[in-house]
Amino acid sequence: MMQAKTKTVVQAVSLVVFMGGLAWASVPFYDWFCRVTGFGGATDVAEAPSDEILDQTIKVRFDASIERDMPWQFRPLQREMELRIGETGLAFYEAYNPTDRPVAGSASYNVTPYEAGGFFYKIQCFCFEQQVLQPGERVEMPVTFFVDPEIVTDRDGKFVHTITLSYTFYEIDLPEGHAALDTTGQDTTLN
């Protein structure tokens, strides 16, 4: 009788550990899946501009937001642009740190409609790296991109005429060794 109870406890604990492992692995797996398939509006990365530029145009809109506790101000410098499919676009976003301390941030992004995610390629983007703004610092951050010409032959993509590129900035810990102001206003180095 005691063995049956022990076996049940071991099975229950194993199930909890297994489910916890699945939960832990689900976020990186989902991120990988979205990047590979474009699902959920995930974009792709290109090393170089498109080889082909079509006569058809597409509108790209730009959106910006910040996480609730992020102290920055963040906005696109242009609301939209129209470019030929395959043509390289260059857009700028502006970030401003109105605080009296350095603030580090990282941007998450997606495109809508989701069908366009697999066809939207970034060549260079501020979202590839952490950003650190000093007190009162204002910066313009570029993103270079193109829309893959294959969108016009895709079953769902061919109906997309406007794509919205959205970024959300959230605060992260300052990188080690980054200068910060202490309460006396003297420059110190974080270790």
Structure classification = alpha+beta
> What would you give as the CATH superfamily of the largest domain?
Ctag/Cox11
- Number of contiguous helices: 1
Residue fraction in strands: 35-45%
Indicate the overall shape: flat
CATH architecture descriptor name of the largest domain: Sandwich
Strand order of the largest sheet: 1-7-9-5-3
Query: What ranges have pLDDT less than 50 throughout 5 or more consecutive residues?
Result: 26-41, 180-191
Proportion in helices = 10-25%
The average pLDDT is 82
- What CATH calls the topology of the largest domain is Ctag/Cox11 (Pfam 04442)
Instruction: Give me the Rg, rounded.
Output: 22 Å
CATH class of the largest domain: Mainly Beta
Termini separation: 57 Å
Describe this structure in words.
- This protein is an alpha+beta fold and about 190 residues long.
- The chain has one helix and twelve strands, in the order H-E-E-E-E-E-E-E-E-E-E-E-E.
- The chain is flat, with a radius of gyration of 22 Å.
- The N and C termini lie far apart (about 55 Å).
